[in-house]
Amino acid sequence: MPELPEVEITRLGLTPHLQGERIRTAIVRNRQLRWPVPRKLAELVAGRQIRRLERRSKYLLLDCGGAWLIYHLGMSGSLRVVPADTPPGTHDHVDVVLVNGNALRLHDPRRFGAVLWEPGDPSRQKLLHGLAPEPLENEFSADWLFERTRGRKAPIKNVLMDNHLVCGVGNIYANESLFRAGIHPARAAGRVAQPRYARLVDEIRATLRAAIEAGGSTLRDFVHADGSPGYFQQQYFVYGRAGEKCLRCETPIKTVRIGQRSAFYCPRCQR
Ligand SMILES: [Zn+2]
């Protein structure tokens, strides 16, 4: 599933091919994504210039001059730039066709992704309204987390995945950050001391930045019509490694269900 680093890599990979380009039209082959694609998408985007690409949480936002084209990649979505006359595959649901002859093509086998149009300020968009701070920005801090978790019995891992507190830290990066910070994923959030939150915030940022850096090698794939869509394999400390040796102490990694998701941790390195 695309998480924050994949969406950021998508933004970085697409920017040189989209920024400043004008849109000719849109071709919608299947409107039935997570939410229906706007019926008049072609009319809405025609003639608009893409000024810049932004990211908010896992949403990719194309500034079309005061109005915004918003993408979410859902479970399996990917975007790439192809020559507009490239024959579409079965799961290529939406093309935004540029005047320069290319198209921004959304491929999404499971159709949990979304293409939305916001005619005004994107923060008014109900999905983006009231999102918590971005983990890579300064508003998100140890103080922010510490103050909001006093008295909370919920496991720290669930708190990291709560989009009201911080947005865009998915299951993989919550597991990895907690390992790197030495915090047990089931520990009550209210029982993590301030200095440990400081360490955790640093490790969340380091984990996400390392993932974005790892994705840098795939930047050129955004203009390839074939091949992988810009996602990348990484070496994880704990995620998906149940039963394997901890890379730091060689104790077998354990897994446990917390909330609805799997937590992976080292019983020796994490308290
Ligand atoms: Zn260990």
Radius of gyration: 20 Å
- Tell me the major beta sheet: 4 strands, antiparallel
- Name the hetero compounds present: zinc ion
Strand content: 15-25%
> Distance N terminus to C terminus?
28 Å
Total strands: 10
Protein structure class: alpha+beta
Shape: elongated
Poorly predicted regions are none
Portion in helices: 10-25%
- Mean pLDDT comes to 92
Largest sheet strand order? 1-6-7-5
- H/E series: HEHEEEEEEEHHHHEE
Number of helices: 6
Describe the structure.
This protein has six helices and ten strands. With 271 residues, it is an alpha+beta fold. Helices cover 24% and strands 20% of the residues. Strand 9 (254-258) and strand 10 form a beta hairpin. The chain has a four-stranded antiparallel beta sheet. Strands 2-3-4-8 form a four-stranded antiparallel beta sheet. The protein has helices spanning 4-18, 41-45, 142-149, 156-160, 171-181, 194-215; strands at 23-28, 52-56, 59-63, 68-72, 78-83, 92-98, 102-107, 114-118, 254-258, 261-265. The two termini are 28 Å apart. The radius of gyration is 20 Å and the shape is elongated. The longest helix has 22 residues, at 194-215.
Describe what is shown at a glance.
By secondary structure, the protein is α+β, with helices and mostly antiparallel strands. The chain has helices at residues 4-18, 41-45, 142-149, 156-160, 171-181, 194-215; strands at 23-28, 52-56, 59-63, 68-72, 78-83, 92-98, 102-107, 114-118, 254-258, 261-265. The protein is elongated, with a radius of gyration of 20 Å.
